[in-house]
Amino acid sequence: MASLLWRSATPTHQLLLFPRHLAAAGAAPASSRSLSQYHPRDGSPRCDPLGTPVNWGVTIVPERKAFVVERLGKYHRMLTPKIHLLVPGVDRIVFVHSLKEQVIPISDQSVLTRNGVYLQIDGGLFVKIFDPYLASYGVENPISAVIQLAQTTMSELGKMTLDKAFKERDALNENIVRLINEAAMDWGLECICFEIRDISPPHVIKVAMEMEVEAELEKRVQIHESEGEAQAILARSKAKAHGIELISEALAANGGTQCLTCASSTRTKSPSLHDAEHHNLSMSSASN
After folding, report:
1. Does residue 192 sit in the same domain as residue 116?
2. Which candidate, 105, 98, 101, places its Cα nearest to that of 125?
3. Are residues 114 and 175 in the same domain?
4. 132 and 195: one domain?
5. Residue 280 binned pLDDT confidence (cut-offs 50, 70, 90)
6. Domain limits at 225?
7. Closest alpha carbon to 61 in 83, 28, 93, 46
8. Is the dihedral angle over the CA atoms 278, 279, 285, 286 positive or is it negative?
9. Helix (H, G, I), strand (E, B), or coil: what is residue 92?
């Protein structure tokens, strides 16, 4: 009786805005509220943590929300964002769904890869309710169901090797989204995307991977140094060849080609001919 008197004394516009909070606050302290007050149907959690509002005859549905109304225990209609008139005591709002895109963190999952390595994986799931009716009657709790489905689907990583899991993360994300949507469509949910945030191998594997990365970096450094040395040698050779070419052009322009030819022919003479010429020169000097 006291609760009814308190409700009657509450301004009507406050009841329209926050009916469940005001009604529950007048009946009992916040610490003693039970889940059944928030979820009068069966006490299980719903998509909206504030629960379902009380039918006071006039209900305002906020933007990007959907209210499911039952009449005498049977589905009656869907309330879209605007003001609605309901029949108190006959109509009841049993589900409240948010139509916004929701980000759901997926906790660490232990997965065994194809080559026998245990990995710890965590990710984020982006989902959106596109059909409030299926989300209400297709599954008991759609958000909890899609979380369980995502955790199960992450075991797809077991079909890959360790190296492939790191290299083909995008393909793995797309495959998980496809598998989730195949089941979640019947629940009125659509998986927008799934992102694997972290893949953590065991410590021994992580150390081995770091050593492999360091060895690969050292190899690249050595290759770059060798290529630099080869380019330097090639540049010096080109510079020398260009200098020789310039000297040859200068001598040819000054008529020094014949001198070079004679000098080269003299250097290429045989030792006997060179001795004969030297003997003739000696005899002529003696006769004089």
Report:
1. yes
2. 105
3. yes
4. yes
5. low
6. 215-247
7. 83
8. positive
9. strand
> Could you tell me the CA-to-CA distances from 22 to 5, 45, 55, 95, 190 in Å, in that order?
13, 20, 13, 19, 34
pLDDT one-digit tens code per residue, 154-165: 877 778 888 888
115 and 180 belong to one structural domain: yes
Do 131 and 62 fall within a single domain? no
Q: Is residue 174 part of a domain?
A: yes
- The pTM of the full predicted model, rounded to 2 decimals, is 0.53
The closest alpha carbon to 110, from 165, 151, 162, belongs to 151
Domains: count for the chain = 3
pLDDT of residue 255: 63
Q: Are residues 197 and 109 in the same domain?
A: yes
Same domain, 89 and 19: yes
- The alpha carbon dihedral of 92, 184, 190, 44 has a sign of positive
Place of tokens 């409240």: 96
Report whether pLDDT(177) > 80: yes
Task: Give the tens place of pLDDT for each residue, 39-55.
Answer: 334 434 344 444 678 88
58 touches 16 (CB < 8 A): yes
Domain boundary among 98, 119, 138: 98
What average pLDDT score do residues 166-187 get? 88
Q: How does DSSP classify residue 53?
A: P
Q: What distance in Å separates the CA atoms of residue 225 and residue 252, rounded to the nearest whole number?
A: 41
Q: How far apart are CA 65 and CA 84, in angstroms?
A: 13
Band of pLDDT at residue 86, cut at 50, 70 and 90: very high
> Could you report how far apart the first and last alpha carbons of the chain are, in Å?
159
